[in-house]
Design brief:
InterPro entries: Thioredoxin (IPR005746), Thioredoxin-like_sf (IPR036249), Thioredoxin_CS (IPR017937), Thioredoxin_domain (IPR013766). The protein contains 5 helices and 5 strands. The model has no long low-confidence stretch (mean pLDDT 93). With 127 residues, it is α/β, with parallel strands linked by helices. The protein has one domain: Glutaredoxin (3-Layer(aba) Sandwich).
């Protein structure tokens, strides 16, 4: 599976429909983005069970702002609809493979428990 273009219109549905999804926030003028692009494409061909999306930050400025993107490239990973990784900077192939493996190996019951606890704590602070 090659990468797919992600927009504000299809982001939520794509995240919901994907067990694992990586998002690459990039721009055409960005040198590090161009360095990372072949690494990202290669991974998308290698890992057919993962959804790989690309967000053009020039075309999707509102989406990039909503995601809090301040530096590109920024890589995000979602697992079962939960954001589990977000980091700016270009990765090489072996670094990206490590991230992919780490996301695959997450104990999602533990992740959901941590998210629930964080939401409770946030609610207690607002009260």
């Amino acid at each position: 599976m090659s990468t797919q273009e992600i927009t504000q219109e299809n982001l939520n549905q794509t995240v919901q429909d994907s067990d694992i999804m990586f998002l690459d926030f990039w721009a055409d003028w960005c040198g590090p983005c161009k360095q990372f692009s072949p690494v990202y494409e290669e991974a998308s061909e290698k890992h057919q069970d993962i959804t790989f999306g690309k967000v053009d930050t020039e075309d999707q400025q509102e989406l990039a702002a909503a995601a809090g993107i301040t530096s590109i490239p920024t890589l995000m990973a979602f697992r079962e609809g939960i954001l589990v990784f977000s980091q700016p900077g270009a990765l090489n192939s072996s670094q990206f493979e490590q991230v992919i493996s780490a996301v695959r190996e997450l104990d999602m019951d533990e992740v959901r428990k941590q998210v629930e606890e964080a939401q409770k704590e946030e609610g207690n602070q607002q009260a």
